[in-house]
Amino acid sequence: MLKITDLRARLDAEDDAAIEILKGVNLDIPAGEVHAIMGPNGCGKSTLSYVAAGHDGYEVTGGSIAFEGEDITEAEPEERAAKGLFLSFQYPVEIPGVPTLTFLKEAANAQRKARGEGPISAPEFMKLARENAAKLGISNDMLKRPVNVGFSGGEKKRMEIFQAMMLAPKLLILDETDSGLDIDALRIVADGVNAMRAPDRSMLVITHYQRLLQYLKPDVVHVMSAGRIVESGGPELAEQLEAEGYDKYATEAA
Amino acid sequence: MAAPVALNPFEERLIAALPDSGTDWRARLGRQIGTHGLPHRRVEEWKWTDLRAALAKSEAGAGELIVKGSREPDETAPVSSAPFLLMPRLAAALGGDARVFRIGKKQDGPLELDLTVEAGMGHGVVVVNVARGVKAELRERYHVAPGAFANIAVIINLGEDTELVRLVEQADSAEGVLVVTTGAELGEGARFDQTTLGFGGRLARLETHVGHPGEGAEVILNGAYVLGQGRHLDQTTYVTHNGPNGVTRELFKGAALAGGKGVFQGKIHVEREAQKTDAQMNHRGMLLDERAEIDTKPELEIYADDVVCAHGAALGAVDAEALFYMRQRGMTETQARAVLTESFLAEPLDRLADEDLKTRWMDMVRGALRPDG
């Protein structure tokens, strides 16, 4: 589904002295699998999610990103979205004046148009919205409010998962979705994500802590340090990290 | 006052149409323009809207202001007293009799006026008088054809306890020049609620002066604008609080595309007697291109010592993180920009009670933001 090869990237600064943040990342996520990336703050894991989604604040200086066998390294963010890549933001952006459902319908139809499909009908869209909102305990009132405006941290994360459900991506990247969530909210979000697991859908879970992974049960856990993936293993790797911390990798990287 | 200027051919034609001697106000106006010319960038109130330059090469000759109304005026009458400011004074001098509309009881529907100059120059004066206790709605649409010049004075008199909702639509007038100067006087307890939507022209100026009596009276001035290539729109407001406890709210929001220029000048003047005035004025502009320009000057002039007055002005560009977020969800960059700008501009138009008009105006905003279709 997603194949990242020797990916190098830096902040897109005016001068050439910008520090490389990704220093040769290799990652291969087959269809249907859930992979986790864990690592200390500043290791480059959030940057990886931005670069994968096509944020123009970063410059790819080497390597490639392939999505379903197609090179998307240079693709616009909206092209990647239409192909089925969804990034759940660590800090979802507030958009005053644009009601959530209006926003989502416009986005869904833009994706469909890019894929050569006709627009979704309003009743069909509303039915889908009601079903998905119910799964996440999202009220009608929340859907009418402008995108993310006035929502708590936990509500914003819930809305991100709601948006993912509505757009039904092939690859779901969760960037620190557990940050700012209390234990109840974490459970609701995790249940929502688990409900989306499917043989033709992959997930990349980026997190600092193990607690979200207890619910999501990843197939593979990667450890990232200083811009590289330094170790990969099964779910037990996450438990080991929780117990021992990241010190070992920090030393190795230095 | 600025030094005498060398007149351009357009100004010479204007003056030729005015009496050339005597002590009558029309003759004095001729001498005033003869010495100082039309308002230009060295005149403080017009520093961003150089009317003189916009008309310098104008070939607009004799023309006519066409006023199509939902009904005929109640009377046409000579202008009883000359307006103080130069442009409405010129409108009165060259516009013939004023068209006077009286709203004396409950209306069947809004008073609708289409004001157009199709060729040459057209001047005119429109008077709207609302009798005591009446609630009324006035809708005006302005359009100026390419090469034409319209100069219109609107005089609004609101009796005690009246309410007037005024909705002004300034249609896109490429290569047309428009000046509309409004003077509104409010009686005790009157409410004046104005919303403008403008798309500019070669040069367009909507200037509104309001005399606020204080206590129980309320002034609302809202506006939105979208200015494309080669369009200039100036919205200038002056509210004078003459009595205590008056309330004024102003909210203007606009967007300028490449080659568009917006101007907002807002002044709130609080007289010594106008204690406990509560006035707020806000203008927010969005520059959608590096080649867009918006100039803004909010002013408070306060002679009372116990008032709550605030003004805010901010210019911004579309937020880069919001753009990325929307594109990540699948919108194209153009679409994301348009959605963000529409939502930004919707605020001053949100209060329109007529849903059909609100929809039409938002459609016009959407169309203007997508000049390429």
Brief summary of the model shown:
The complex is a heterodimer of chains A (254) and B (373). By secondary structure, chain A is α/β, with parallel strands linked by helices. In chain A, 39% of the residues lie in helices and 28% in strands.
Keywords summarizing the entry:
heterodimer; A: 254 residues; alpha/beta; Rossmann fold; six-stranded mixed sheet; four-stranded antiparallel sheet; B: 373 residues; nine-stranded mixed sheet
Can you describe this structure?
The complex is a heterodimer of chains A (254) and B (373). Helix content of chain A is 39%, strand content 28%. Chain A has 254 residues and is of the alpha/beta class. Chain A has a domain at 2-93 and 169-253: Rossmann fold, CATH 3.40.50. In chain A, the strands form 3 sheets. Chain A has a 6-stranded mixed β-sheet, with helices on both faces. Chain A has a 4-stranded antiparallel β-sheet with strand order 2-1-4-5. In chain A, strands 7-8 form a two-stranded antiparallel ribbon. In chain A, strand 1 and strand 2 form a beta hairpin. In chain A, helix 2 crosses helix 3 and helix 6 (153-167) runs parallel beside helix 7 (183-195). Chain B is α/β, with parallel strands linked by helices and 373 residues long. Chain B has a domain at 63-318. Chain B contains 7 helices and 18 strands. Chain B has helices spanning 9-16, 25-36, 51-55, 86-94, 320-328, 333-349, 355-369; strands spanning 65-69, 75-77, 98-103, 111-117, 121-130, 135-144, 149-158, 163-170, 173-186, 191-198, 201-212, 218-227, 232-241, 247-256, 261-270, 278-287, 293-302, 308-316. A 9-stranded mixed β-sheet of chain B has the order 1-4-6-8-10-12-14-16-18, covered by helices on one side. A 9-stranded mixed β-sheet of chain B has the order 2-3-5-7-9-11-13-15-17. The radius of gyration of chain B is 21 Å and the shape is globular. The interface between A and B is medium-sized, with 32 and 22 residues.
